Amino acid sequence: GAGVSQTPSNKVTEKGKYVELRCDPISGHTALYWYRQSLGQGPEFLIYFQGTGAADDSGLPNDRFFAVRPEGSVSTLKIQRTERGDSAVYLCASSFDKNYGYTFGSGTRLTVV
Amino acid sequence: AQSVTQLDSHVSVSEGTPVLLRCNYSSSYSPSLFWYVQHPNKGLQLLLKYTSAATLVKGINGFEAEFKKSETSFHLTKPSAHMSDAAEYFCVVTGGTSYGKLTFGQGTILTVHP
């Protein structure tokens, strides 16, 4: 597609529920990144995929968070047993090569009530 | 390790006057540096990037930034502000073993008065 697509754009869930956030990167971009932006903060790194494998998952806050990219294109960020502190905008970005910069999606705003 | 400090959380200017958004970075390696802009309810848009080529980098919409290694700075400037420049701006660093992992500053909200 023309840009990075994230769905849903908004998600409201109850505390303790499971959620999945989807990212569809730009076609041909081998690198895919997930970031989390809390209110009033800059985005914080969660995980980076190169192809199908997670090259760096050091930003995942705990084992409730997991991400996959089984075919090297679409990625899903999964959050188990959601907590109110998980409320944030989750951003996805993709790139063809790091030197060319990163294209960000519009994000998924997750609200845990 | 790498980090970014944006020295002003809010900057307010009048339309037609210069813009200066300040950024200092820390990196154990030769960094790549970026400025992104985020308009309300919009995604992050790349303004410009420095990747060890020319130290004065020109970006979109008349913005430019100068990489100064001795001062570890990468300030963003624009000669004349436009109302449409009102947004939040993020300075970003990556490099070395952290390459691929962007570290964002806290952001600077730019307000432009008519």
Task: Please provide a brief summary of the model.
The complex is a heterodimer of chains A (113) and B (114). Chain A has 113 residues and is an all-beta fold. Chain A has strands spanning 5-7, 10-13, 19-24, 31-37, 44-50, 53-56, 65-68, 75-79, 88-95, 103-104, 108-112.
Number of helical segments with 4 or more residues of chain A: 0
Mean pLDDT of chain A: 93
Number of helices of chain B: 0
Estimated radius of gyration of chain B: 13 Å
N/C terminus separation of chain A: 33 Å
- The helix-strand sequence of chain A is EEEEEEEEEEE
Oligomer: heterodimer
Helix amount of chain A: under 10%
Structural account:
Chain A is mostly beta strands and 113 residues long. Chain A is built from no helices and 11 strands. Chain A has strands at residues 5-7, 10-13, 19-24, 31-37, 44-50, 53-56, 65-68, 75-79, 88-95, 103-104, 108-112. In chain A, the strands form 2 sheets. In chain A, strands 2, 4, 5, 6, 9, 10 and 11 form a 7-stranded mixed beta sheet that branches. A 4-stranded antiparallel beta sheet of chain A has the order 1-3-8-7, with no helix packed on it. With 114 residues, chain B is mainly β. Chain B contains no helices and 12 strands. In chain B, strands 2, 5, 6, 10, 11 and 12 form a 6-stranded mixed beta sheet that branches. Chain B has a 4-stranded antiparallel beta sheet with strand order 3-9-8-7, with no helix packed on it. In chain B, strands 1-4 form a two-stranded antiparallel ribbon. The N and C termini of chain B lie far apart (41 Å). The mean pLDDT of chain B is 92. Classes of the chains: A mainly beta (113), B mainly beta (114). The A-B interface holds A 4, 31, 33, 35, 41-45, 48, 50, 55-56, 58-59, 91, 93, 98-99, 101-107 and B 32, 34, 36, 42-46, 49, 51, 90, 94, 99-107.
